[in-house]
Amino acid sequence: KSESSGTSLTVVLLFSLQQNNQVVGVGSGSTIVYAVDRLAERVRQEKLNIVCVPTSFQARQLILKHGLSLSDLDRHPELDVAIDGADEVDASLTLIKGGGGCLTQEKIVAGCAKHFIVIADYRKDSKALGQQWKKGVPVEVIPIAYVPVSRAIARRFGGEAVLRMAVSKAGPVVTDNSNFILDWKFEHAQNWKEVNTAIKMIPGVVETGLFVGMAERVYFGMEDGSVKIRD
Ligand code: DER
């Protein structure tokens, strides 16, 4: 990820945070780090009064590290804007998210925001899901159900849904919600709206990393430091 694209992204993006007293959903991953750095700088410089709602343990740490005002959905169930990254963005702004394993809280927070804004580097910009991102669609599952859910997905939609194993810990990745993640390596384009609903109906599925019709705008940080916007 080029540093310049991340920084330029957040400069452009955060000008959209004009009003004071905004409630901001803070996403997860590596690109959001630039946004939170810049947000904290503006809060200091312009004495902005904003509160931040995290989408993960990582996001919570980021908010606290910058001395930003930490809140939650109990106190702020309606957010003005949520800002987050994405693993891939298709032509209709359908996203694959969850590469960092935080898809469930990210989708909850994005769903509570008036505006859901995505920041990503140019490599996430795709014509169709699966063109750039090869790790599949993350699906968060209740641990006891990961095998039946994996079989149900493969049987109904093809491909293979593989349990995400941890790298620096023996065994599978465990999410902030104490669940497992299946990465569904799909074989062909689907009706993502239908597939998202159908997968969520499988007993044991908590959430999918398909964000359909949620992103209002995507800012792509380009290699030359410029920013491309897709609505
Ligand atoms: O896991 C996630 O959903 C992250 O937001 C991911 O999609 C983007 O992570 P990145 O900014 O590190 O590429």
Helix content: 25-40%
Beta-strand content estimate: 25-35%
* Bound heterogens, unique: D-4-phosphoerythronic acid
Rg is 17 Å
Characterize the overall form: globular
Strand order of the largest sheet: 3-2-1-4-7-13-14
Class from helix and strand fractions = alpha/beta
Based on DSSP secondary structure assignment, what is the total number of beta strands?
A: 14
Characterise this structure:
The protein has 231 residues and is of the alpha/beta class. The protein has 6 helices and 14 strands. The chain has helices spanning 3-14, 31-46, 57-65, 103-111, 146-157, 192-200, and strands at residues 23-26, 51-54, 69-70, 79-84, 88-89, 95-96, 113-121, 137-141, 160-163, 180-185, 205-208, 210-211, 217-221, 227-230. Strands 3-2-1-4-7-13-14 form a 7-stranded mixed beta sheet, with helices on both faces. The chain has a 4-stranded antiparallel beta sheet with strand order 9-10-8-11. It has a 3-stranded antiparallel beta sheet with strand order 5-6-12, covered by helices on one side. The longest helix is centred in the N-terminal third of the chain and has 16 residues, at 31-46. The mean pLDDT is 93. The protein binds D-4-phosphoerythronic acid. Its EC number is 5.3.1.6. Belongs to the ribose 5-phosphate isomerase family. This is ribose-5-phosphate isomerase.
